[in-house]
Amino acid sequence: MRFPGECTMDASRPPEPSPWLPLGSRRRARDAKREAVLRTAVQLFLEQGYHHATLNEVAERLNITKPALYNYFRGKDEILFECWAMGQELVDGAIADINANAGTGLAKLRKLVRAYAEVMSTDFGASLVRFDVRDLSARNGEVVRAAKRSIDLTFRGYIAEGVADGSIKPCDAKLSAFAIAGSLNWIGHWYRPDGPLPPEAISEEFAIRLTEGLARRPQRKKGAPMM
Questions:
Q1: Whole-model pTM?
Q2: Across 72-101, average pLDDT
């Protein structure tokens, strides 16, 4: 994959494809380059902090010139927002999948906990919780805040649904949602890819631990022997 403004040239390489590629191919190539910028940028932002990382460093890691970045993004804060958006898309996709299938409120809640935990173990997922919304433009900041409210309401909705269908004990859905989401968000701060547990094991453990206190146990039938 080549970027406009790439720093090195190699005469042994085959010639660049014609700029008159089909529109769909050009869009896919541009999207791939944008994603490469975002993946590199989010790694640097997480490693060094948003304010310490520079676009020069992003360009150096990609082996392109800094001006080439402006073919894809208007500035550093837009890159930050797009990193957040990539993580949000993962969460939105998980919620859409859950809502497309039947299940009790408890089953949906556990699926969301599992999916959210796995998202938090990715760089784009961590960007949902590691960066300050105040570094974004006012418009993008409001988009982020609205998305956070939507995720909170989804957690509350599954809990309330579980209370209604009997799979979850009566509880305060708002406080329960806060407790669950707070625990999950911290994964984005402490998770390390070289840690002892893979994301799948962490997500499964969280799905059990964060919901077992809410789950209503099946009532023992009258006269049934105690185990």
A1: 0.81
A2: 95
